[in-house]
Amino acid sequence: MEISVKLDDLLYARRMTLTDLAEKVGITLANLSILKTGKAKAIRFSTLAAICAALDCQPGDVLAFDKDNVSVKG
Amino acid sequence: MPRKQHLFVVTHWLLKALVVLCFVAMAMFGLGLGGVVVAAIDANHLGIPENLEGIPRVDALSIGALALIGILACTLLVLFALGETAAIVESAISGDPFVNRNARRLTLVGWLLLAFVAVQFLMHLTINRIAERLAAEHQLPADAMGTISFDSGVSPVALLAVLLIFVLAQIFRHGSEMRSELEGTV
Question: How many distinct structural domains can be found in chain B?
Fold first, then answer.
């Protein structure tokens, strides 16, 4: 997918585990794991806002656009 | 159990009962067809007269066999359509009806009902043609033709129902796509 999730880097920088983040954000570890591994098809603004609040960052720090991996939908 | 679940359960039972009825009807029509075939093979032994109310025996038996084959085909199509519909209702009972498989099932039901309408139309056309030919050939009275006429033309309501089923299948397909997208939303 052309959008990649940089949760790993953010968690490492903040010395946090995925479980800690799941507790802070209030979503299940399974869903957060889906997001981290890039298997999620979409992310709600509320989830993104909660992650940004928990990690004290901006949405652009969590998500990145990879232009070499673009799949055009008709 | 919520009220909508009651509706699904009752519908499921009704569909299952109709499936059983279809099997019984098919057995009866099959026996009828067998009877017509036996009558055609062994007509003289069975004492069937050459003329049945002015219609030659061979023609009368042909019309009977044709009608029974058509009815058997229609019943078989309805049986498959009922089975697929029962499977859709079953998935609704289990709480997960918006899946791609149900969209495919609905499309199949649409095609089966369209085939039903086509068979009905062909039967109507063929048997009426034979009846008209017989009436002309044997100079039968007008009421004699009425007795062998198979009057079940295509109803516009049936065609509308088929169209609605195809539309519903498309909606189901869209719904299942939305559902799968929602499942991947975090």
Answer: 1
